[in-house]
Design goal:
- The protein is mostly helical and about 200 residues long.
- Among the domains are: about 40 residues; about 90 residues.
- The protein has 5 helices and no strands.
- The N and C termini lie far apart (about 140 Å).
């Protein structure tokens, strides 16, 4: 009998604790619902062309837009570009403009510094293209599935990269040859101006 008594007491305790747990869970659920209703987050704003703000500025990553004072300098650079393009065209054709040769030392220095800057810019472009090519190669060879699926596409892309790199190297070589021609022209002009001793 004692065993039955103990079993009834234990069963009653288990039943009471289960009922208490059920009652507590209901109150926790109600509490969670109440908290959710209080903390309603506003919907995320999706910007379209129709609702973009026109009176305020939008923060973007990068350099700030050119102000009114900086615009004339940008326009001067844009106006100088057609002249640079003409010089490039003459250089590609192999025509040296002897009749337009600079007459004094400052003009020579300006022309040579512009040519040196052009060489540096071309070398920078070549370096960036080589880096991009190396990244593409690493990405292609890192994925065996891509190697199996896209062999033809990769061959075409690699040929394009290599042609682009060769073209950029050719431009650098031409620019360096142009600089050497300028230096030679300057030496010849100085030799003609200086009296023979």
């Amino acid at each position: 009998m004692r065993r039955i008594g103990y079993m009834l007491v234990v069963s009653a305790l288990v039943l009471v604790s289960a009922l208490a747990a059920v009652a507590q869970q209901e109150s926790l659920g109600d509490y969670a619902r109440a908290v959710r209703q209080e903390k309603r987050l506003p919907a995320k704003m999706v910007y379209t062309n129709d609702n973009l703000p026109t009176t305020t500025t939008i923060s973007v990553v990068g350099p700030p837009p050119a102000t009114a004072e900086e615009k004339p300098a940008a326009e001067e650079k844009a106006a100088a570009k057609p002249q640079d393009e003409k010089a490039k065209a003459e250089q590609k054709e192999g025509k040296t403009s002897e009749n337009k040769a600079p007459q004094n030392e400052q003009e020579w220095q300006d022309q040579m510094s512009a040519q040196k800057k052009k060489i540096v810019d071309l070398e920078h472009d070549l370096d960036l293209a080589q880096r991009e090519y190396k990244l593409q190669v690493a990405q292609y060879y890192a994925d065996a599935g891509t190697q199996l699926r896209d062999q033809k596409a990769w061959a075409e892309q690699e040929a394009k990269f290599r042609a682009d790199l060769a073209d950029k190297q050719k431009q650098i070589d031409e620019a360096k040859a142009g600089l050497q021609d300028m230096e030679e022209q300057q030496r010849q002009q100085e030799a003609q101006k200086s009296p023979l001793q």
